[in-house]
Amino acid sequence: MSHQPQLLPHASDHDYRLGASEAERQRLLAQGDLLRPAARELLDRLPLAEGARALDVGCGPLGIMDLLSARTGPHGRVTGLDADRRMIEWARESVAALSLPNVSLVQGTLPSPRLPQAAFDLVHCRLLLINNAHPRGILGAMAASARPGGWIAVQEFDWASWHCDPPHPAWDRLKSLLVPVFGGDVHIGGQLPTLLREVGAMDIGLAAHTFYWRPGDRYQGLLLHFAGLFRDRITANGTDPRTLDALTTELRRHLAHPDTVVREALLVQAWGRIPPA
Ligand SMILES: C[S@@+](CC[C@H](N)C(=O)[O-])C[C@H]1O[C@@H](n2cnc3c(N)ncnc32)[C@H](O)[C@@H]1O
Predict the structure, then answer these.
(1) For atom 1 of ligand 1, which residue has the closest CA?
(2) Which residues line ligand 1 (CB under 6 A)?
(3) pLDDT tens digits, 78-123
(4) 240: CA distance to ligand 1 center in Å?
């Protein structure tokens, strides 16, 4: 199967509905800290040599560029690509603060006139596809950016396992109200093996990670945070604002109970090799 799929035109879609606010910057940086050990494990599984060339697509304010920078070393080259100008500015600040000399940044989407095709040893994205209406287009463009014999690697959540215990109807209802307005497929994580195969990747590898949260943990209330961010879209979709307020009040009370635990969405990691020429 060719890794030059017919889906490239949609790769430019970048309606990132979580926005580019200072709060979202901080959320992404904190989330990056949380997911750093998993990202290290992922890179341990990939043959990324010193001197390699890596691309982090949808890098946000840092993504995994610090890890890629350390792995590829002084002769390596890491490129961070993001559609959003503010994200690129913040990434520039992170790169300067962490003194990552081998990292450069590009604003845009794939395919970008500023980036070579069929050139990178590794093309990676994390939490890019879940927010995007055209994940196949992005993956196809990622595959086309990797050199023959190079790798693509993807880390995406799957909300299927995002759950609170004891269960509560307000959790289920709020989660189901968010699914159609989130901007992408919240179950994309579970589809990564098929999606990677569809863009021509071979030797597919898989791993997954999750977490448990308790009251007081930053991510115990993430569903409530999203319900706040997407309030206008949820009500525009037909939910009465009073119903939404009642659900969030009920759920806030439930999540604050000392016995309530939240199991995080599953972070699925999938990687595959682009066939050698
Ligand atoms: C959820 S954030 C993840 C950031 C980073 N990968 C991380 O793990 O912290 C998604 C990022 O992808 C960017 N983005 C969305 N669609 C894009 C596209 N088609 N091409 C490049 N960047 C995109 C957004 O601007 C945002 O910075």
Answers:
(1) 127
(2) 13-14, 16, 28, 32, 57-60, 63, 81-84, 87, 109, 126-128, 131-132, 138
(3) 999 999 999 999 999 999 999 999 999 999 999 999 999 999 999 9
(4) 31
Secondary structure in 3-state letters for 4-49: CCCCHHHHHCCCCCCCCCHHHHHHHHHHHHHHHHHHHHHHHCCCCC
Render pLDDT for 46-78 as a digit per residue (tens, 0 to 9): 999 999 999 999 999 999 999 999 999 999 999
CATH architecture for segment(s) 8-157+184-210+264-273? 3-Layer(aba) Sandwich (3.40)
Cα of 60 to ligand 1 centre, how many Å?
A: 5
Domain ranges of the chain: 8-157+184-210+264-273
109 alpha carbon – ligand 1 mean position (Å): 10
Find the largest Cα–Cα distance for the chain: 59
**Which of 8, 16, 22, 62 is the pocket-test mutation for ligand 1 (most atoms within 8 Å of CB)?**
16
Which amino acid type is present at position 120?
A: F
Radius of gyration of the chain (CA): 19
Helix (H, G, I), strand (E, B) or coil at 203: strand
**What separation in Å is there between the alpha carbon of 173 and the centre of ligand 1?**
27
Query: What separation in Å is there between the alpha carbon of 51 and the centre of ligand 1?
Result: 25
Burial of 156 (0-12, 13-18, 19+ CB in 10 A): buried
User: Residue 151: enclosing H or E segment and its boundaries?
Assistant: strand 146-158
pLDDT above 60 (res 147): yes
